[in-house]
Amino acid sequence: MVKRQILCPTRNLLIILGFLISVNNLQGQAIWDNTSFVHRNGQEIHNGQNNAINLDGVNIGSWLMWEGLMWGGGLISEKDITNKMTSVIGPVAFNNFRDSVYKNYITRTDIQRISNECYNVVRIPFNHNLLEDDANPFVYKPEGWAILDSVLKWCEDYNVYAVLDMHAAPGGQATHFIADPDSIDLWNSPVNKNRTIQLWKAIANRYNNRGIIAAYDLLNEPNIWWWPDLVSLYDNIIDTIRTVDNHHMIMLEGNNYAQDFSIFTSLPDPNICFQFHYYTFFFSAPNIPAWTALSNTLNVPIWCGEWGEDTLGGMQNKLTNIIRNPANKISGQAFWTWKTVTVGFQNPHSLNVNNSTDWNNTMLWVTYNSPIVSPLEMQNGIDSFIVNMKLQNCVVDTGVFNMLNLCSVIGIQNIEALKSLNVYPNPFTSSINIEGKFDNEYYELLNSTGQIIWKGKKINNQDFSSLPGGLYFLRIFNGNSTQTTKLIKD
Question: Is this model's pTM higher than 0.90 or not?
Answer without folding.
Answer: no
